[in-house]
Amino acid sequence: MYSLIRPLVFRLDAEAAHRLTIAALKRTPTGRPPTFPPSLTTSIAGLGFPSPVGLAAGFDKDAEAFAPLLGLGFGFVEVGTLTPLPQTGNPRPRLFRLAEDRAVINRMGFNNRGQADACRRLARRDRSCGVVGVNIGANKDSPDRIADYAAGVRRMAGHADYLTVNISSPNTPGLRDLQAGGELAELLAAVRDARGAAGPPVFLKVAPDLEIGDHERIARAALDHRIDALIVANTTLSRPPLRSRHAQETGGLSGAPLAPIALDQLRRFRAIVGGELPLISAGGIASAGDAWQRIRAGASLVQLYSALVYEGPGLARRIAAGLAERLQREGLSSIADAVGVDA
Q1: What's the structural domain count of the chain?
Q2: Half-sphere exposure of 233 toward its Cβ, with a 13 Å CA cutoff?
Q3: Per-residue pLDDT at 31 exceeds 80
Q4: Is 3 a catalytic residue?
Q5: What is the pTM of this model?
Q6: CA-based R_g, the chain, Å
Q7: Which of 73, 83, 212, 288 is deepest in the core (most CB within 10 A)?
Q8: What CATH number does residue 22 fall under?
C-alpha cells in the first residue's frame, strides 16, 4: 500500500509530510507490539531487546508516537533529540529528500519542545510495551553545553530505558567539538556523575566524520567512563557522488549514500573495542541484508530512519523477519551468535 501512496506523500514538503506522519501515528490505536522469534532476542547493558532493529532518534523528536512505532515492529525506539529548553531549530526549508539517491539531507538543529514537555508523555508510558531510549542534546545558545547534558541526564533518567548522549549532530555549531579529547572526558565524567549508581544505561552517539586517531581516543574515553554502548554513527557532512538537485544543500546526509561510510566506521570501532563495548550501527540500513552485514561486522543492534521514507512503515518487520530467516539458514540459535563473526 505504501508504494501507492508514496507519490502523494512526496508531493508534500518533506517536513510537512513528516509532521503529517506523526499526527497519523498519534491517532493510531495502540495495541501490543508484535511477537518476535526468540532467536532475535538480545541483551546489552542489562536491557532485553525483543528485536535488534530499532528506530533512530530524529523521527519522534518530542516523544509523541513511541507506542505506535513499537507496534509497527521496532524492537526499540529512541526519541529526541531533546534539549533542556525548547528551541525552534534552524530556518526552513531544512529537510530535503534526495529521491534519486534514496537519501535525506537535514539541517534541523535540534528543534523540539523541550525535555519537560516530553517528560509528561514518557511518564505515562507502559514500560512493558517495549524499550524506549531518550536522546539528549544541548541548546544551541547554551553558555555551558556540558551542564546541559548533565541536566538532561538528571531530568530524563527516570523516564528512559537508556539515554543517548548526542554530540554528533552537524547542525548545531560547535557541538561536534565535544568529541575532542579533554572536552569529551569532561563531558562523560559529568554525565556519569549525573546518572549516579541507579540510573539507566548511557550510550554515546558519534559522528562518521572522524580523523585518524579519533576512534581510539573516543573508545578509550567511553571505556574509562563506563559508557554502556556506542552508536556509530550520525549523519555525515561529506558528499559522495549524488544525483539529486539537493545534493549541495548544507546539513547532514543520511540514507543509502551513508551506508558504506557507516559500515567502515563500525568496523574501525569494532577493531579497537572487540567485544569489550557494545556497538549499535546506524546509517544507510534499508534491508535485512544491510542489517545482517552490520551485525556480522560487530553491531549488537541496528537503527534506521531515512529508509522509512522510501520503504514505508513495514520495514522494521520485514528486516526482523529477514534476520530470523538468516539465523535459521546459518544454523544459529541467537542473533548474539552472529555479532562480530566477520570482524
Answers
A1: 1
A2: 30
A3: no
A4: no
A5: 0.96
A6: 18
A7: 83
A8: 3.20.20.70
